[in-house]
Amino acid sequence: MSLPKEPRQQMINVMYLVLLAMLALSVSNEIVDAFKLLNAGIHDSSEKFDVKFHHSKKKFEQAQSGSKKGPIYFNLVPKVEKINDDFNRYIEELQENIRTEIDGPEALEAGFWPSRLEDQGAPTKILIDEKKGETLREKILQARQDYLDLFAPRIEGSDTFFIDQDFLAFQDEIQLGLNEVPDGENWAEHTFNQMPVVAVLTMLNKFKNDSKATASVAIDRLYGKLNEDDVIYDNFEVAIIPNTRKVYQGDKISADVFLTASSSFARSNIKINGRVVNVDQFGRAKTEFTANELGAYNLTAEIDYKDGYGQSQTKLGKLKYDVIAPPDHAPLVSATKMNVFYKGIPNPVSASIIGIREDKLKVSLSGPGSISKVNGTGNYVVNVNDYGSVEINLSGENDRGEKVEFSVPYRTKRIPNAEPMVGNCSGCSMNSGEFRAQTGLRAELKDFVFDDLKYEVLSYELTISDGGDLRSTKNKGGKFTPSTQRLINEASPGDLYYFENIKVKGPDDSVRKMPSMVFRIR
């Protein structure tokens, strides 16, 4: 059941739910009086719906003659009245059964309320034991469906009367329906079992009121159809028309983007290249053909349709396209920074096959190592575990479903040794002031493709020859330790300094011994 839009109807629903919750605690005189007050409000609301319905019907009758489809819509009004009258008549008969069960036939002459408003036996007997609650459920569902059927999409010849949006809009506003119950529970038992008669009669009046509210909405919607155009655009889509659907790397792509509107009831006739094609429920046609010959071609479309005023129109469209030979498939594998792979470090590489989309490409590595995808089109990283060679394998499927495969060999090597250095040389003649200004020994990779790879100096020995007198010290790390720095500070012309047993750690975590260096102080 949809939520009512009118504040009064919303208040009635909320009050009824609150009173039902209070009934779970007790059936006091205050609650009984509250239900009677709520019922009076429902009765007042129903009378207002009756007045509104008859006023709308009279206005509708006067206006329908000036519209082409007006009489057809107005002829549905008696059907609305019949659905509402039949449903309300059944509810009143059910209320009479409950009242007479309590006080006998004389209850009908005593007024609406029977003598025992807190009585729970009569409603339970009639609605649960005699299963009239299930009949009521079926009547509610049937009346609701009868209302909805009035707005079912309808086309007669070239005239459109209702579309899906009419049906869905009315479905959102319809008031008559079943209250929700927990899964697996019987609706009638959950709603009426052991309920006092004051609550049951009020709920039945509420169902009558919901039907009248639905009938009022229905006639308003029928009246509103008088001013609508004969052709209604009910299908809107974003159209993107590119200058091409396939481009080579480096080419520019342009596209027209706009909103399209069509009518699923206009029943357009479409011809493509002079041939009539089928149109789907949204007024669209699809075409497919094989481009067998190279060259420039046109695809023409002719559409016969009705515009927003119901007038027949014809539109022509043309699409230009070129048929070109498919590219020769060839592997495209290039090392990003080198022509070999080095053991112990991640080797970036790009891999693709010309003419094969990336989502149709498979890349793998044969040999001691692995390859993995990284960010960016065609970008991978290779890690090798041994020296020798590996192969990058590429396979894919082109747009014609053809399989292509390639293998590209690569050598695997060890990262070159670094060069030990103090200052700007690896052993040389250096004046004493410059030599004493140095702070340590470092190992550098010169002219290597990886600029960011570093060697770590682990240790070395320093020996000074001062007039034939030899003194030595051991140094951990590249930076001069205090004992090493003291020997450096003693440098004077004619001295010889020997850097020996130099050990470094490479970026592949291997420990290597570097050649010795000799510095002559001048």
Quick structural gist:
With 522 residues, the chain is an alpha+beta fold.
What does this structure look like?
It is elongated, with a radius of gyration of 46 Å. With 522 residues, the protein is α+β, with helices and mostly antiparallel strands. The chain has 4 domains: 221 residues, no CATH class; 89 residues, no CATH class; 83 residues, Immunoglobulin-like, CATH 2.60.40; 103 residues, Immunoglobulin-like (Sandwich), CATH 2.60.40. The strands form 7 sheets. Strands 18, 20, 21, 22, 23 and 24 form a 6-stranded mixed beta sheet that branches. The protein has a 4-stranded antiparallel beta sheet with strand order 6-5-7-8, with no helix packed on it. It contains 11 helices and 24 strands. Strand 5 and strand 6 form a beta hairpin. The longest helix is centred in the N-terminal third of the chain and has 35 residues.
Task: Chart the SSEs and their pairings.
Elements: H1 7-23, H2 29-63, H3 70-74, H4 77-103, H5 121-129, H6 132-149, E1 154-156, E2 159-162, H7 164-173, H8 187-192, H9 197-224, E3 235-242, E4 255-262, E5 269-272, E6 275-277, E7 295-306, E8 312-323, E9 331-335, E10 341-342, E11 347-353, E12 361-366, E13 369-373, E14 379-384, E15 388-397, E16 403-413, E17 419-421, E18 429-430, H10 432-436, E19 442-444, E20 456-466, E21 469-476, H11 482-489, E22 496-505, E23 511-514, E24 517-521
Parallel strand pairs: 10-16, 18-24
Antiparallel strand pairs: 1-2, 3-4, 5-6, 5-7, 7-8, 9-11, 11-14, 12-15, 13-14, 15-16, 17-19, 20-21, 20-22, 22-23, 22-24
